[in-house]
């Protein structure tokens, strides 16, 4: 190739590259900037409205979604929705049913419409949380609801009075024109979710909901089958109802259609083969719906059963692992039986219930306190040492209790050799309260004064010494009362050394503080000293500055100093002159403080 040909072949490529560099790259950068700007603007537009105190003030009747009244109302509106879902297609398919009880149906229709209207009013008065606070201003609630998508897309469309079409002869009392009432089905799902979260038998409730949904689909398919048979003509072929169906009652016709629909959707029975194209399409559609229903039912039931048996499976795996270990270590039969009985009680009867995990799960601090108070406060109040203490102290101690499992519901206080039984402790009894107090002057020190033996299975709640003293550190008055009560108990048993001086008692009492409390106390003292030194230095600097200003005024006034003229030199503006002198002054001040740190005027109490 010649040089001219090479240049001609390279020129278009170079032009394309330049074109891309000049055109596409700036556009891409510009588009990114525009996207970032639009995102920031969109974020600003989506910011929540400022908090107004008027929004949280109760101005009228407002429903709390967490209240049981709200759940009861959802049940009522669900009944009205279910009535429309079941009776509208049934009345449209079985015309004799609609004619025989027309006045009853019309009355029930308007009752359900009235319930729909009440539901609109109650939704406009349903409160919600904003910024963590419950909005109770009904004016704000109504404005937000009537401007929401829920009102326009669901509630308003579902209450349109289509019954006025009854005045048209061709639509006279045709129930299918009220099918817009189905749009309110979202309230039915809300009732399902709320009830499922509050019921104590969620699996049974889920099975009931699944059964109702299946029966509803079979009911709709039953009505559709009857309409197709009526359209094609009774007795026209083997697939439709026989010609004698004209003489049957509505109940008998509905029963046969429901039975046929159940066989077809469940795919477990033989039904007559379709003949016409429309019959084939209907059967094919039913088979597809039936497969989905069957798969949904089996999947949900399998999930429920596996969830229910999950804890039992975990227990079996743990017990099998322990059995394999005992077999590998050649544990004797007696000890193995004892271990298995204990595990059977711990896992099977207790269902592996970890109380600490439950209380420390997703519950808030206040809810954990309320739950612990409900369960343990009555037992803690039986301790004589805590009778006259502050209620808040008992509340904090309740949250510190930890569950421990032993062999029996009965415990006995025995001697050191375990042969002599002094007393039998039953449910609600308390022991070991003296040992965790570490009362100064106790002859036993922090050792226990008695031995406790379990006679079987028992559930105990223990209070650790560190947890007790961590709480008592905030209640000095209650601490003094508890110590005095402990001393009185020790005096009765002649276990208190009265010869200790108050100073020794104070030193011994300080030794009771945990390491964390000591570190906290030292940090507080250090912080207090730093604050006082900082305040002193700030006062010193301010006083020196004020003294220099006053001294300069006096010098100018009496002519001891004349105003000076400063000539600027060619120093770059970026030179940090002021920070340099400031740092130099700080270093000199620090050196002076270190130099005169032993002076008496810097001593602090």
UniProtKB/TrEMBL annotation:
<keyword id="KW-0406">Ion transport</keyword>
<protein>
    <recommendedName>
        <fullName>Cyclic nucleotide-binding domain-containing protein</fullName>
    </recommendedName>
</protein>
<dbReference type="InterPro" id="IPR000595">
    <property type="entry name" value="cNMP-bd_dom"/>
</dbReference>
<dbReference type="InterPro" id="IPR014710">
    <property type="entry name" value="RmlC-like_jellyroll"/>
</dbReference>
<keyword id="KW-1071">Ligand-gated ion channel</keyword>
<feature type="region of interest" description="Disordered">
    <location>
        <begin position="27"/>
        <end position="46"/>
    </location>
</feature>
<keyword id="KW-0812">Transmembrane</keyword>
<keyword id="KW-0813">Transport</keyword>
<dbReference type="InterPro" id="IPR032406">
    <property type="entry name" value="CLZ_dom"/>
</dbReference>
<dbReference type="InterPro" id="IPR005821">
    <property type="entry name" value="Ion_trans_dom"/>
</dbReference>
<dbReference type="GO" id="GO:0017071">
    <property type="term" value="C:intracellular cyclic nucleotide activated cation channel complex"/>
</dbReference>
<dbReference type="Pfam" id="PF16526">
    <property type="entry name" value="CLZ"/>
</dbReference>
<dbReference type="InterPro" id="IPR050866">
    <property type="entry name" value="CNG_cation_channel"/>
</dbReference>
<feature type="transmembrane region" description="Helical">
    <location>
        <begin position="280"/>
        <end position="302"/>
    </location>
</feature>
<keyword id="KW-1133">Transmembrane helix</keyword>
<dbReference type="GO" id="GO:0005222">
    <property type="term" value="F:intracellularly cAMP-activated cation channel activity"/>
</dbReference>
<keyword id="KW-0472">Membrane</keyword>
<dbReference type="GO" id="GO:0005223">
    <property type="term" value="F:intracellularly cGMP-activated cation channel activity"/>
</dbReference>
<feature type="transmembrane region" description="Helical">
    <location>
        <begin position="102"/>
        <end position="122"/>
    </location>
</feature>
<dbReference type="Pfam" id="PF00520">
    <property type="entry name" value="Ion_trans"/>
</dbReference>
<feature type="transmembrane region" description="Helical">
    <location>
        <begin position="70"/>
        <end position="90"/>
    </location>
</feature>
<dbReference type="GO" id="GO:0005886">
    <property type="term" value="C:plasma membrane"/>
</dbReference>
<dbReference type="GO" id="GO:0044877">
    <property type="term" value="F:protein-containing complex binding"/>
</dbReference>
<dbReference type="GO" id="GO:0030553">
    <property type="term" value="F:cGMP binding"/>
</dbReference>
<dbReference type="InterPro" id="IPR018488">
    <property type="entry name" value="cNMP-bd_CS"/>
</dbReference>
<feature type="transmembrane region" description="Helical">
    <location>
        <begin position="151"/>
        <end position="174"/>
    </location>
</feature>
<feature type="compositionally biased region" description="Basic and acidic residues">
    <location>
        <begin position="30"/>
        <end position="46"/>
    </location>
</feature>
<keyword id="KW-0407">Ion channel</keyword>
<feature type="domain" description="Cyclic nucleotide-binding">
    <location>
        <begin position="415"/>
        <end position="472"/>
    </location>
</feature>
<dbReference type="InterPro" id="IPR018490">
    <property type="entry name" value="cNMP-bd_dom_sf"/>
</dbReference>
<feature type="transmembrane region" description="Helical">
    <location>
        <begin position="248"/>
        <end position="268"/>
    </location>
</feature>
<feature type="transmembrane region" description="Helical">
    <location>
        <begin position="207"/>
        <end position="228"/>
    </location>
</feature>
């Amino acid at each position: 190739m010649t040089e001219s040909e090479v240049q001609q072949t390279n020129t278009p490529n170079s032009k394309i590259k330049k074109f891309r560099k000049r055109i596409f790259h700036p556009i891409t950068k510009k588009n990114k900037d525009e996207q970032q700007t639009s995102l920031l603007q969109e974020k600003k537009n989506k910011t929540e409205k400022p908090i107004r105190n008027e929004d949280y003030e109760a101005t009228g009747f407002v429903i709390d979604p967490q209240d049981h009244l709200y759940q009861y109302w959802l049940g009522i509106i669900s009944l009205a929705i279910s009535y429309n879902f079941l009776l509208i297609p049934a009345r449209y398919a079985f015309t004799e049913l609609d004619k025989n009880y027309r006045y009853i149906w019309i009355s029930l229709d308007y009752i359900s419409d009235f319930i729909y209207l009440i539901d609109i009013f109650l939704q406009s008065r349903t409160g919600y949380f904003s910024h963590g606070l419950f909005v109770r201003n009904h004016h704000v609630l109504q404005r937000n609801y009537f401007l929401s998508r829920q009102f326009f897309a669901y509630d308003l469309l579902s209450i349109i009075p289509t019954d006025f079409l009854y005045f048209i002869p061709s639509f006279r009392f045709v129930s299918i024109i009220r099918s817009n009432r189905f749009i309110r089905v979202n309230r039915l799902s809300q009732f399902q979710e709320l009830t499922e979260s509050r019921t104590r038998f969620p699996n049974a409730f889920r099975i009931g909901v699944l059964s109702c949904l299946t029966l509803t689909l079979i009911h709709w398919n039953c009505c559709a089958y009857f309409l197709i048979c009526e359209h094609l003509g009774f007795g026209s072929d083997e697939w439709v109802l026989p010609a004698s169906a004209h003489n049957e009652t509505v109940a008998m016709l509905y029963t046969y259609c429901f039975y046929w629909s159940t066989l077809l959707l469940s795919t477990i029975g033989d039904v007559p083969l379709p003949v016409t194209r429309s019959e084939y399409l209907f059967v094919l559609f039913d088979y597809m719906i039936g497969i989905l229903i069957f798969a949904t039912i089996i999947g949900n039931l399998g999930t429920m059963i596996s969830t229910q048996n999950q804890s039992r499976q975990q227990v079996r795996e743990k017990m099998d692992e322990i059995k394999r270990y005992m077999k590998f270590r050649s544990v004797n039969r007696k000890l193995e039986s004892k271990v298995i009985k204990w595990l059977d009680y711990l896992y099977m009867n207790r269902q592996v219930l970890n109380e600490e995990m439950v209380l420390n799960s997703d519950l808030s601090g206040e809810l954990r306190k309320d739950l612990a108070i409900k369960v343990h406060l009555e037992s803690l109040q039986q301790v004589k040492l805590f009778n006259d203490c502050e209620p808040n102290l008992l509340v904090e101690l309740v949250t510190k209790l930890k569950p421990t499992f032993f062999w029996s519901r009965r415990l006995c206080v025995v001697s050191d050799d375990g042969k002599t039984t002094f007393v039998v402790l039953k449910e609600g009894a308390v022991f070991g309260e003296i040992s965790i107090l570490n009362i100064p002057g106790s002859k036993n020190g922090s050792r226990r004064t008695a031995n406790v033996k379990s006679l079987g299975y028992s559930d105990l709640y223990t209070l650790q010494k560190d947890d007790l003293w961590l709480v008592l550190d905030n209640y000095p008055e209650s601490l003094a009362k508890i110590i005095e009560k402990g001393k009185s108990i020790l005096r009765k048993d002649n276990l208190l050394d009265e010869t200790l001086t108050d100073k020794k008692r104070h030193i011994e009492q300080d030794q009771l503080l945990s390491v964390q409390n000591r570190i906290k106390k030292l940090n507080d003292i250090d912080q207090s000293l730093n604050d006082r030194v900082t305040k002193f230095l700030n006062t010193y600097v301010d006083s020196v500055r004020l003294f220099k200003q006053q001294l300069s005024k006096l010098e100018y006034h009496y002519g001891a100093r004349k105003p000076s003229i400063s000539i600027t030199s060619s120093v770059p503006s970026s030179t940090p002159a002021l920070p340099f002198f400031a740092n130099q002054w700080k270093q000199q001040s620090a050196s002076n403080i270190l130099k005169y740190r032993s002076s008496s005027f810097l001593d602090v109490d």
